[in-house]
Write a structure and sequence with these properties.
This protein is an alpha/beta fold. It is built from 26 helices and 23 strands.
C-alpha cells in the first residue's frame, strides 16, 4: 500500500530531520505524488528554518500554530492547525508533515502534542528515534513512543533510527519484537566546523547586532555559559569565545560591551541571548554602538540546550549543499521503501474521527454546499457573533431577521461585522403580503383568514419558515431565544414531512474521542410507537449518510436478543421488524443493550454473528426519557462533543437550537443545515 502523506516526527531532539525530510519528499515524488510540506507546530511565528529550506520557491512556508498558542489556547490552536493543513493540501496529493524539534516552550509535552496533531490531521507517523545508547535503549525508546502515539489515537507506519559512522547499530537487534518496520538511515555528515551562520540557522536565531557576515566567522572552542557574576565571567572571555546568556539577564550583555570597550577585557567572538524571554530594549542598540563587529544573536532555545547542541556538534542542519542533498536522498531510499509502508504492519486505527476532525469537515462541507440560511433571531448577541464567524469564514450566505436598526446597532456595539448578511424586518418587508397570502392558502382548511395569516407571518419564526418554503432561503436555524415548539410548529404547518415519513424527529452527533455516533431521538418524540421508531431509524440513516457516516443501526432496549421479554422489549422487536421491511438493505439489529451495540467484546458474548452489535454507528432509543438522559450523560461524563439536535424528516431543513447554545454550537448547527440543504437524500 503506497503512502500518500506522512508525519515525520522525532521523539527527541534530532539534528538530521532536514536530511530525512529531503529523502521522504523525494520518495513520495518518485511515487508520482504532488508533494507539499507543512509544519503544525513552530517555535516562532516569524519564521521556521526547516520550512524555509524545504518549501518550493512558488509556495510560502506553511505552518499551523506556535507552541505558545498550543499551551495557552489548545482548542483554538488545534482547530487552526487542521484548517491551515487542509488549505495547504489543496492542489497536492501528498504532504510531508514535520514534527517539532524540542526547541520551544512545549518541549516537556512536545511529542505527545505531535501525536495528537497527527491523529487530528489523519496523517500516519514515521517516528525518528535517537540511536545513542545501544540497541536495548533504542528498543525501549521505540516502545515508549509507540505507546504514547497509540494512546493518542495516532497511526504509526514505522521507525527511523539515524545511523552514523560511530558505533553503528545492527538492524536485527534494534527491530526485534517491534510491531512496525524499523529503518536504519545513514546520516549525512559534514567535516567542517560550523560557522556562525550555521549556528544561527540551526538555532533559529535572529542577528540583532554585529556588522560582519556570520558565514565569515567559524568557531572551534567550546561555548561558555555566562551564568555567573560579571566578576567571574569577564576574565574567562577571549576573542574566540561564544558566550551564551539568558535573555532575561540584560546585565550580562551590557557588561560584555562595557568591559570590551574599556580595553581591560576582550570582546567575545559572539554572544547568544537564549530562552523564551524578551531581551530588554536598548541592549541591541548599545551593542551596535559599542561592539559593532561582534555578532549578537537571539534564539528562543534555552541556554542549556544551546550549550548542549554546540558542544555536541548536534545543531539541526538548516540547509544542505547539493551533494549532501543527493546523498540524503540516496540514504533514505536505500533504507525506506515508501511504497511498502502501511497496511498490516501499521499500528493504530485508520478509522479514527476526532471531534476536531468532524467539526472541520462540517465547516468544509458547508462551505462547499454554498447555501443560504435564514436566522430569525437576528437581534440576539450570540446569533450576531455566530453570523460574524460564518460570514468571515465563508461558510454560507445569511439572512438575519429583526429590526434592522437594532441589528446594526447591536452588531456595532459588539464589534462584529455582518455587512455580508441580508437584513430583513418582517413587519416592513415587501414579502409580508405575498407570504400572508400563501400561508392563508395553505392553512385555509384550518380556517385561517388573510388577516390572521398576516399577523402570523410577521412573527420571525413564521417569516423565516416562509422564506424556506418559497426557496428564498435554503434552510432555517432558530431556538436560541424561542422554544422548540415555536421553531418546529411553522415548519410542520407549511414545509411538512417528506414522502413516506409521518414523524419529525431529531438526532445528536455524539463526537467521542475516536468516533462519531448518531443518537436518536433525543429531543422531539416522548413515546414513539414501533412504527414511529422505525421511521426515526430510517430518517437517522439518511442523516448519517449526509454526513459521511456509514449507517449501522442498533434498536436499543434493556434486553439484547432474546434474553428478556416484556412490552417494551416487544415494541423494539416490532420496530426492528418494520425497519427491515422498509429498508432491507440497511444493517440493523435489535433489541440491543447499549454496551452490546458499541463494544465488540461485549457483542461477541451477548450476540455473536450480529452485523451491527459491537460496531453500531446509529443508536435508536426507545423513548425520549432514555435518549435525552443518555446523550447528556455521555456528553457530561465522557466529555463528548454533542452537536444537535438535528431535525430530520422535513421536506426542507429547519433546525432548533438549545436556548443555552454557545456561539460555536450555532455555527455548527448552521453548517449542518447548509449541508442538509445541499445534499440530496436517497
Amino acid at each position: 500500500m503506497a503512502v500518500r502523506s506522512l508525519y515525520l516526527c522525532p521523539t527527541q531532539h534530532c539534528p538530521h530531520l532536514l536530511q530525512f525530510a529531503v529523502g521522504a519528499i523525494a520518495g513520495l515524488r518518485a511515487e508520482g505524488a504532488r508533494v507539499t510540506v507543512f509544519r503544525p507546530i513552530v517555535a516562532d511565528s516569524r519564521g521556521d528554518r526547516l520550512l524555509k529550506a524545504l518549501s518550493e520557491p512558488t509556495e510560502p512556508p506553511a505552518w499551523g500554530a506556535t507552541a505558545d498558542q498550543l499551551l495557552n489556547t489548545p482548542g483554538d490552536a488545534l482547530g487552526q492547525i487542521i484548517a491551515r493543513f487542509a488549505t495547504r493540501l489543496q492542489g497536492h496529493t501528498a504532504a510531508v508533515v514535520l514534527g517539532s524539534e524540542y526547541d520551544c516552550s512545549l518541549a516537556p509535552v512536545e511529542f505527545a502534542w505531535n501525536t495528537k496533531v497527527a491523529a487530528n490531521l489523519d496523517v500516519p507517523m514515521l517516528l525518528v528515534v535517537p540511536a545513542d545508547g545501544g540497541a536495548d535503549l533504542v528498543r525501549e525508546r521505540i516502545a515508549v513512543a509507540l505507546d504514547e502515539a497509540t494512546r493518542n489515537l495516532a497511526q504509526v507506519l514505522g521507525i527511523i533510527v539515524p545511523s552514523g559512522r560511530q558505533a553503528p547499530l545492527v538492524l536485527e537487534e534494534v527491530a526485534r519484537d517491534c510491531p512496525v518496520p524499523v529503518h536504519l538511515v545513514r546520516e549525512v555528515e559534514g567535516d567542517a566546523a560550523p560557522d556562525l551562520a550555521a549556528v544561527a540557522a540551526g538555532l533559529g536565531a535572529e542577528q540583532l547586532a554585529g556588522g560582519i557576515a556570520l558565514s565569515a566567522q567559524s568557531f572551534a572552542s567550546p561555548p561558555l555559559v555566562a551564568d555567573m557574576s560579571l566578576t567571574h565571567l569577564l576574565p574567562l572571555i577571549d576573542k574566540e569565545t561564544i558566550a551564551i546568556f539568558s535573555a532575561d539577564r540584560a546585565e550580562i550583555a551590557v557588561g560584555l560591551c562595557v568591559a570590551g570597550a574599556s580595553g581591560r577585557f576582550s570582546f567575545p567572538a559572539a554572544a547568544i541571548a537564549a530562552g523564551p524571554w524578551p531581551l530588554e530594549r536598548g541592549v541591541a542598540d548599545l551593542w551596535r554602538r559599542v561592539a559593532p563587529s561582534v555578532p549578537l544573536l537571539r534564539t528562543p532555545v534555552g541556554v542549556r540546550e544551546v550549550s548542549r547542541l554546540l558542544e555536541a556538534d548536534a545543531l539541526p542542519v538548516a540547509e544542505l549543499a547539493e551533494a549532501h542533498r543527493a546523498e540524503a536522498i540516496r540514504n533514505f531510499s536505500a533504507a525506506v521503501d515508501l511504497s511498502r509502508l502501511g497496511g498490516a504492519a501499521t499500528i493504530g486505527r485508520d478509522d479514527v474521527v476526532t471531534p476536531m476532525m468532524f467539526e472541520h469537515r462540517l465547516l468544509e462541507a458547508a462551505r462547499a454546499a454554498d447555501r443560504h440560511i435564514v436566522l430569525p433571531e437576528g437581534e440576539e448577541d450570540r446569533i450576531l457573533r455566530a453570523a460574524h464567524r460564518l460570514l468571515e469564514q465563508g461558510i454560507c450566505r445569511l439572512t438575519l431577521l429583526g429590526n434592522v436598526e437594532t441589528i446594526r446597532g447591536r452588531a456595532a456595539e459588539l464589534g462584529v461585522d455582518i455587512a455580508g448578511a441580508q437584513l430583513i424586518d418582517p413587519r416592513r418587508s415587501e414579502l409580508l403580503e405575498p407570504f400572508a397570502a400563501r400561508y392563508a392558502e395553505l392553512r385555509k382548511k384550518k380556517g385561517v383568514t388573510l388577516e390572521q395569516a398576516r399577523q402570523r407571518v410577521m412573527d420571525v419564526s413564521y417569516f423565516g419558515t416562509m422564506m424556506v418554503l418559497e426557496s428564498l432561503a435554503d434552510g432555517m436555524v432558530s431556538g436560541s431565544v424561542n422554544t422548540t415548539a415555536h421553531t418546529i410548529r411553522p415548519a410542520l404547518e407549511v414545509i411538512r414531512t417528506r414522502p413516506g415519513i409521518s414523524v419529525v424527529s431529531s438526532v445528536f452527533f455524539m463526537c467521542l474521542a475516536d468516533r462519531v455516533l448518531v443518537f436518536g431521538d433525543c429531543a422531539v418524540n416522548p413515546n414513539p410507537t414501533p412504527d414511529q421508531l422505525a421511521e426515526i431509524a430510517l430518517s437517522s440513516a439518511a442523516t448519517a449518510r449526509q454526513f459521511g457516516i456509514d449507517p449501522r443501526i442498533a434498536m436499543l432496549s434493556y434486553s439484547t436478543g432474546s434474553s428478556g421479554s416484556g412490552p417494551d422489549v416487544e415494541a423494539t422487536v416490532e420496530a426492528t421488524r418494520l425497519l427491515r421491511e422498509m429498508a432491507p438493505e440497511l444493517p440493523v439489529d435489535g433489541p440491543l443493550q447499549y454496551d452490546a451495540a458499541v463494544e465488540p467484546s461485549v457483542a461477541l458474548t451477548k450476540l455473536p454473528g450480529s452485523p451491527v452489535a459491537g460496531r453500531a454507528t446509529i443508536l435508536i432509543f426507545p423513548d425520549l426519557q432514555t435518549g435525552n438522559n443518555t446523550y447528556k450523560a455521555v456528553q457530561r461524563s465522557a466529555g463528548a462533543l454533542a452537536i444537535g439536535p438535528v431535525l430530520q424528516g422535513l421536506n426542507k431543513p429547519v433546525n432548533d437550537l438549545s436556548r443555552g447554545a454557545l456561539v460555536s454550537d450555532i455555527v455548527n448547527t448552521v453548517a449542518i443545515t447548509a449541508i442538509q440543504a445541499g445534499t440530496e437524500e436517497p
